[in-house]
Give the backbone structure.
Amino acid sequence: MKYSNLLKGIVAGFALVSMTQNSVAQEGFNLSVKGIPQATYLFNSDNADNDNHESEMNIGVAFGIGAAYNFNDNLGLSLDALYSIEGDKYEITQAGVKSELLNKYQYIKLPLQFAYNTDPSKSVMFRGKVGPSFNFLTGASVENWDGDEILDDNKDSYESFVLGVALNLGVGFSLSDALSLDAGIRADYALTDAISEDAQASDAESSFPFTSGLEIGLRYTIK
């Protein structure tokens, strides 16, 4: 898969460069690559109150790259570019007929976050990030739980842009003077309605995508 080969190439490049660098401080620029297996939901109060609608957890994935600048050893600002595969999985009963459906949607996410970490000279440090996420819809479709496609293009049912907030909490493990392995929990939640006005009733409640997953990545600090 081309994405897998690209990620492998980036990781190999980080590892090669890290072996040729002298000791560097946390302050300055860093680049990262990351992958995130994640649970995805679409929160809607109308669906939650509907006895004929039962939401299920959907498993998706996100992956991408990041760049950050640390103002000092502890505080910085980061920008990631993530491709996020998500979905709204549910069971609905209409006129006595039960259907098991998955509304799939994908976003390019650009979270701009304030970053904090503890003492970077330690072999293990705490890391946290929080900030807005600018999410751009790239595709949407509908299928049943068996994977049979029902509608191959459902983008018109969704807003092309969703504003959200993203939070990361985890730890960083020093692998060398320049290279670190990061692992932690990542979650994001939409602050604006993800469903297009033309695709829902005027009095319908808003729908808010939510993801929660385990982010694992490599981070290289530039001298």
